[in-house]
Write a structure and sequence with these properties.
The protein has about 750 residues and is of the alpha/beta class. It is globular.
């Protein structure tokens, strides 16, 4: 059958039918050809409907420079045969042809000759030091020229097997984790290509910065290279911002060029996906760095993006209660960057035991994959790729001049932690992975179209606050600025806001505060909640002021902004609110820094803070001091009316009570839509609704505490109305359920109201 695949209304439609694609990553090139069927049948058994795989250039290119995509040298390299077998078994295919793959492959999946033969593509970073990671300047024209023959060869295999041509391939990923290697090593790509582009940008906009900061426009490129690679203190503030802008535009242009190449060679007529990197140390908090780096590619700032969307790679381990809030906020940020037709996807959905080193040094509990799946389903995800679903082997491929003699860097066995072992057996994580896949399959008819319901508030996403991946080691001011941004940008100090909002029953998404069209189009909700410190982009400060003046509410948690991204004084928000920062108090071994509510100790107990900014008493009429630093009595939390709205600023890094934060959001105009009676720590509650008005209640117990709760929902008048007839819902620790809230249609089941569709009651 010829099936068109399109992205529309934040859905994936295959042949006109909305679907939630359930993919499992299986690397055909790491398996003997006679083992393919076994792995694909296990994927079907687990509940998958799609197989995902990298198609690695560096594995298919032979030592003599020719390509083998037909199996003429090794049977497992016959890509077309693997795709045809998937189709025979009824599986769809998500193809990932790079050119970068990473995937623990030699040279990140690229031919080693590229770095050896084209030294101009090998990045140097600060002070002309070689990059410590195997990165390349992918945005350089030469790299795209080198990629063209690879895409042409892959296109010969993929084109006749695209779904619109009667084949199984329904989506293609462009490259892999663009910008990640540069970020993790603090090595900006400062090749001659990149610095020449920077010079062109600077020369084209001389009024943006002091003329003396950069070399003269007509200075030789060598002078620019020296100045940029080893910036002076005068240049460093502008360079931090300009390099971030340069690399974001280069990434967007590169991915747009790959999309053009895919279309030129016949495999761009299905959705083209861009994956976002960034989770680290079992935390999703760094993921917005990758969003910030890549969002221009799917937003169309450079090049066309028809049929393109983004997805996350996440590795957050067993998913603690705090990790669930981080994961929710990170994906809310990603969703905030997507257009009206672009669905949220998950391109590497962590599964398996977590023992990636094979030394029993780590363990992910079996409930984690189910909880992560449920959390993302409640946020409207339309594609999951369980990664890595099946292990395999890195076969020996010795080549002259290669230190690594296997195709991969993990030894002979690869993917020992996967649900399907390298030997093709069901591993310890198979059952839990299969349960999560089958949960999605059971819910697909609704999950393919439902959308998360949100209350009248959103967390503000600040792309520029995550543009901190490159700071020169000698730039002390830059390191201080980055530390301030890192401390506050992901939901305020300690990441407090997403945890508090979820615990208090708020259903929230995010808004991109740097999207100039969002607030003008009325897409900002009544209340915007922002984590920010002393550094906040000037344009964002002005938009927040206008939001409040027009009748909105603002809760800013962290500090009072007074600097822009270049470290220059910027007090637009403080000036509008009539606020001024007078100093800072930090806790020490013998000098605790405490915060208490203004007017005494009633309401909540005094708490110790690691840092408090003292504010001058607010001068605006109607302003109110809400909390003070206990020793000095100086304000550190204030409410200020402005125009038709009001703002609350909490300038303290303190574990203030969640109920107090709820009271602040309520006074700004947004009450929590859900009320949960009897909840133990770690419960996440959400609702979704289909276009037909069918509604679902999602409950996830992300901690080990058992739950027995009653849930109510606030109606339009503000009154709380019991859900499920006021009956309690019981959950074991580390489990979840989804309950129907609207009458079941006759063809859907029994006709019972509030039918349980899936759960562990």
């Amino acid at each position: 059958m010829r099936l068109d695949v399109e992205l529309r209304d934040r859905r994936i439609l295959v042949g006109g039918t909305p679907q939630v694609l359930r993919a499992g990553e299986v690397h055909y090139f790491r398996l003997a050809r006679d083992g393919w069927r076994r792995r694909l049948e296990l994927l079907l058994e687990a509940g998958g409907d799609t197989v995902a795989t990298y198609v690695p250039w560096g594995v298919h290119e032979l030592a003599d420079g020719t390509l083998d995509l037909t199996g003429r040298t090794r049977p497992e390299l016959d890509l077309g045969a693997f795709l045809d077998l998937a189709a025979e078994l009824g599986l769809l295919v998500f193809a990932r042809p790079g050119p970068f793959q990473m995937a623990e492959l030699r040279h990140e999946g690229l031919p080693g000759r590229i770095g050896r033969d084209h030294r101009d593509l090998v990045p140097v970073g600060w002070d002309a030091a070689p990059a410590p990671t195997p990165d390349l300047d992918v945005a350089a024209p030469r790299f795209l020229d080198l990629t063209r023959p690879w895409y042409a060869a892959v296109g010969e295999v993929l084109r006749p097997r695209l779904a619109p041509n009667g084949g199984p391939v329904v989506a293609v990923q462009l490259d892999n984790e663009v910008g990640m290697l540069s970020w993790v090593s603090n090595t900006p790509v400062l090749t001659e290509h990149a610095v020449a582009e920077l010079r062109e940008r600077v020369v084209a906009a001389p009024d943006r910065r002091p003329a003396a900061a950069y070399p003269a426009p007509d200075a030789p490129l060598e002078e620019w290279l020296a100045a940029v690679r080893s910036p002076s203190p005068e240049l460093a503030p502008d360079l931090r911002v300009d390099l971030a802008e340069l690399h974001r535009d280069r990434a967007a242009r590169y991915l747009a060029s790959l999309a053009d190449l895919a279309r030129e060679h016949g495999f761009g007529d299905v959705p083209l996906l861009v994956n976002v990197h960034g989770t680290a140390a079992d935390s999703a908090a760094p993921l917005p760095i990758g969003i910030s780096q890549l969002q221009r590619s799917w937003q169309g700032a450079v090049g066309g993006v028809a049929g393109m969307t983004a997805g996350s790679d996440h590795y957050v381990g067993s998913l603690s209660a705090a990790g669930a809030a981080e994961m929710h906020l990170a994906h809310a940020f990603l969703a905030a960057t997507l257009g009206p037709d672009q669905p949220l996807t998950v391109l590497e959905h962590e599964c398996g035991t977590g023992d990636y080193g094979g030394d029993l040094g780590a363990h992910v509990d079996p409930e984690a994959v189910d909880l992560k799946t449920r959390l993302l389903l409640a946020q409207g995800a339309r594609l999951f790729n369980w990664y890595l679903f099946a292990g395999g082997a890195n076969w020996s491929d010795p080549r002259p001049g290669e230190a690594q003699q296997r195709i991969g860097i993990t030894g002979e066995r690869h993917g020992a932690a996967a649900p399907v072992t390298p030997e093709g057996e069901r591993g310890p994580a198979f059952a839990s992975t299969a349960a999560s896949m089958r949960a999605v399959a059971d819910l697909e008819r609704w999950a393919a179209v439902w959308e998360p319901e949100h209350d009248a508030l959103a967390v503000g996403y600040l792309p520029s606050a995550f543009a901190t991946e490159h700071v020169h080691p000698a730039d002390e001011a830059g390191r201080a600025l980055r530390a301030d941004l890192e401390q506050h940008r992901f939901g305020g100090p300690r990441g407090i806001l997403p945890r508090v909002l979820l615990a208090e029953g708020y259903r929230f998404g995010a808004v991109d505060l740097e999207d100039h069209d969002d607030d003008e189009d009325g897409r900002w909700p009544r209340v915007v909640v922002v984590g920010a410190g002393r550094v906040l982009d000037g344009g964002v400060q002005e938009r927040l002021v206008e939001h409040v003046r027009a009748g909105g509410g603002l809760l800013l948690v962290g500090d009072l902004p007074e600097l822009d991204l270049r470290g220059r004084p910027c007090t637009a928000l403080a000036d509008a609110l009539g606020l001024r920062r007078t100093g800072e108090v930090r806790s020490g071994p013998r000098m605790p820094c405490d915060v208490r509510p203004a007017g005494g100790t009633t309401g909540w107990a005094e708490v110790t803070s690691s840092r408090v900014s003292a504010l001058a008493p607010p001068s605006a009429p109607g302003a109110e001091v809400l909390a003070v630093e206990a020793t000095s009595g100086k304000p550190c939390a204030v409410a200020v009316p402005l125009g038709e709205g009001s703002a609350v600023v909490v300038a303290a890094d303190a574990p203030l009570p969640s109920g107090w934060y709820r009271s602040l959001v309520e006074r700004l105009g947004a009450a929590p839509g859900l009320h949960v009676e009897g909840a133990a720590p770690g419960l996440v509650v959400a609702t979704t609704a289909t276009p037909e008005g069918e509604r679902f209640l999602h409950l996830m117990a992300t901690s080990g505490h058992p739950q027995r709760v009653r849930v109510s929902e606030r109606d339009a008048s503000g009154a709380l109305m019991p859900l499920l007839g006021g009956r309690p819902v019981e959950l074991a620790g580390r489990s979840g359920t989804i309950l129907r809230l609207e009458p079941v249609q006759p063809d859907y089941g029994t006709g019972h109201r509030h039918q349980t569709l899936r759960g562990n009651e």
